[in-house]
Amino acid sequence: MRKAKAKTDPTSGVDAVSAAHGLSKSEFVVLSSLISATIAISIDTILPAFDELSDAFDLADGSASLSITLFLAALGVGTLVWGPLADAYGRRPALWVSLGLFILGASLSSLAGSFTVFLLGRVAWGLAAAGPRVIGLAIVRDCYSGDEMARIMSLISAIFLIVPIMAPALGEIILQFTTWRWTTGVAVVIGVIAAVWLNRMSETLDPDQRQPVQVRRIVGNTRTVLTNRVTLAYTLATTFAYAAFFPWLGSSPRIINDIYGRPDQFAALFAVNAGLMACAIIVAERLVKRRSGVWVVAWAAFLATVASGGYVAVAAVFDGVPNFFAWFAMACVLTMLNAAFSPITTTLAMEPMGSIAGVASSVSGAIVFIASALLAGITDRFIDESVTPFGLGFLVYSLAALIAIQVARTASPQPATATNP
Question: Within 10 Å of residue 7's Cβ, how many Cβ atoms?
Answer without folding.
Answer: 11
